[in-house]
Amino acid sequence: MVTVLTESGEHTMPAAESRGDALWAPAAEVRVTTGWEAKPEGLCQGDVCVPLPAGRERELVDGERINLAALWRHLGRPALHSARGDVWVLGESAQQRAAALASLEAPDFTLPDVNGRMLRLSDYRGQKVLLVTWASW
Amino acid sequence: MWQALYEELAPRGFVVLSVAMDSRDPDPLPWIEAAKPTYPVLIDREHRLAELYGIVNVPQAVWIDEAGRIVRPAEAAGAYEGFRKMNRQTREMPEDVARLTAHAKATYLDAIRDWVRAGVRSEHAFTGEQARAHLPAITADVATAQAMFRLGQILLRRGERAEAERWLQEASRLHPDSWCIWRQSAGVNDQGLAALPDFWERVDALGENRYYLPVDMKGMP
Fold this sequence. Notes:
The complex is a heterodimer of chains A (137) and B (221). Chain A is α+β, with helices and mostly antiparallel strands. Chain A has helices at residues 27-34, 57-60, 68-74, 94-102; strands at 2-6, 9-13, 17-19, 22-26, 36-39, 42-45, 48-50, 61-62, 65-67, 79-81, 87-90, 110-112, 118-120, 128-134. Chain A has a domain at 2-95. Helix content of chain A is 20%, strand content 39%. In chain A, the strands form 4 sheets. A 4-stranded mixed sheet of chain A has the order 2-1-11-10, covered by helices on one side. In chain B, strand 1 (14-20), helix 2 and strand 2 form a beta-alpha-beta unit. Chain B is built from 9 helices and 4 strands, in the order αβαβαββαααααα. Chain B is 45% helix and 10% strand. Chain B folds into 2 domains: 3-133, 3-Layer(aba) Sandwich (Glutaredoxin), CATH 3.40.30; 140-204. Chains A and B meet through helix 4 and strand 14 of A and strand 1, helix 2, strand 2, helix 3 and strand 3 of B. Strand 14 (128-134) of chain A pairs antiparallel with strand 3 (60-64) of chain B, so a sheet runs across the interface.
């Protein structure tokens, strides 16, 4: 079992296997966790498809299993894991972050307030928002 | 600092969302209770805002309009680095520096008032082009550092302190401009204040460089 942190949150992948810098998981788990799936044209998320790199297909797809870490690196996104391989972070790329900001549409997020109630930035549409950070020291 | 402004401007459709970039448990809470804010106070242990908005320090703020568009990207929120000139024993500030600090704060608060009153016609509301020109740079190292920070935080929660600390320090090394990452990586075994000597050392190492990048706002010191 592997805990995987993605942009959408924290996921448990019961049948995933961490082997060195590879993270192999059944296609069904990969789809549920990340939205990526194997298709004839390559690996796809929604309408976006990435062809498998020629000669390195088996690094990314092996039968019914997908190497999520190799896919992430192929996409130029950070893929990091704990020493024991029980926790992985599959991050967004710098280009994705920069493009989202350049759209000037304020990236939405959900965070808990001090009472544990989840609040979402977009709940405040219709008001001007001063989003301001602080720390206790 | 924000409560009075919030009360003044809330009737005009303005809200403050205050986000604690704090990971240590449970440290933000006593501070929040002391301040008794009536606006929402959120806790961001994994520094989601740093990932999404390029936040590197506190207090930094982003102005977002009614349609959810960024009007001013992340920048120092009325803060001036006068603390660098204070007497570290007595915590006294030279008078001229204290005046500049107060001036930076007042300038920033007045700019918010003007924006809330005048909207896009405010001289402090960036056009789209200006806002894009002021966006923080997100490099591959920055994106990787934020992923490392997140890994460090989950390892901390799981009690893997030694490994967590390695990831947090590596994140800080990759993204040295981020005081937010450094703050959480410095002395994770201690209360934050125990890291104060390290903080001053890091501030002094800035030399002529700024602790807060200059804010492009008329009247701002």
